[in-house]
Amino acid sequence: MYQIILASGSPRRKELLEQIGVKFTVDPSTCKERISDTDPIKVVVDLSFQKACDVARRYENTIIIGSDTIVSKEKQILGKPKNEEDAYRMLKLLQGDTHQVYTGVTVIDKQKGEYQVYSFYSVTDVSFYSMTDEEIYSYINTKEPMDKAGAYGIQGKSAVYIKEIKGDYNTVVGLPVAMLYQTLLNNGINLLA
Ligand SMILES: Cc1cn([C@H]2C[C@H](O)[C@@H](COP(=O)(O)OP(=O)(O)OP(=O)(O)O)O2)c(=O)[nH]c1=O
Questions:
Q1: ipTM
Q2: Which of 79, 91, 96, 101 sits at 20 to 30 Å (Cα–Cα) from 147?
Q3: Quick one: CA torsion of 180, 97, 9, 58, rounded to 10 degrees?
Q4: 140-188: per-residue pLDDT in tens?
Q5: Could you read off the pLDDT of 2-19 as tens digits, one per residue?
Q6: Cα–Cα distances in Å, from 43 out to 71, 72, 81, 89?
Q7: CA distances from 56 to 32, 121, 164, 174 (A)
Q8: Nearest C-alpha to atom 9 of ligand 1 is from which residue?
Q9: Ligand 1 binding pocket mutation candidate from 12, 106, 180 (most atoms within 8 A of CB)
Q10: CB neighbours of 117 closer than 8 A, spacing ≥ 6?
Q11: 68 is a catalytic site residue
């Protein structure tokens, strides 16, 4: 029986872990997120590692889960919009086309002072229908974009603009729970035990 900590303030990640039946507590990381690379895989793995490490320092005999999600479109990396103008820029870029959503996960298994670190990522293609400027502005007015990578929430009101996805839906929402569960199981850790 492990104590499991989700090192995230994201309500979506909490819901996804609850959905699969994991017993855990939430203790969000407070480290500043800086995108310091142009490779989306490196960015999400590195940020998930930083978040997990930040929280792992405070605990013993626990499993800590950190995660990070970004949107990538033609070599541009989109995090959360800084303001409404930034949200407009992102949605204008994404509408009518396909982009990638990357989620990186780092799990730190800290038992008796020893660390085991598992890092991985998942990527999903998301295709948007075209959006008029009016639709973009009215979506921004819902405030839904403001705390989400790429300025949209597939699980929310933007669902009417999503044409197709290829890959794991939960990767887009912020935590690929199947990959998380299976990766840990392959390493002898059962999150549901
Ligand atoms: C693309 C997309 C992102 N998101 C969310 C998931 C993440 O919460 C957020 C990306 O920001 P993150 O920096 O990955 O996470 P966060 O700041 O919300 O939480 P923490 O750092 O404490 O773990 O965007 C959606 O909810 N739906 C979507 O469709």
A1: 0.97
A2: 96
A3: 50
A4: 999 999 999 999 999 999 999 999 999 999 999 999 999 999 999 999 9
A5: 799 999 999 999 999 999
A6: 11, 11, 17, 21
A7: 16, 20, 37, 20
A8: 148
A9: 12
A10: 49, 52, 106, 107, 108, 109
A11: yes
Encoded tokens for 46: 């590195």
Position 84, amino acid: E
161 lines ligand 1 (CB under 6 A): no
Single out the catalytic residue among 46, 54, 68, 168. Answer: 68
The pTM is what?
A: 0.97
Q: Which CATH architecture describes the domain 3-186?
A: Alpha-Beta Complex (3.90)
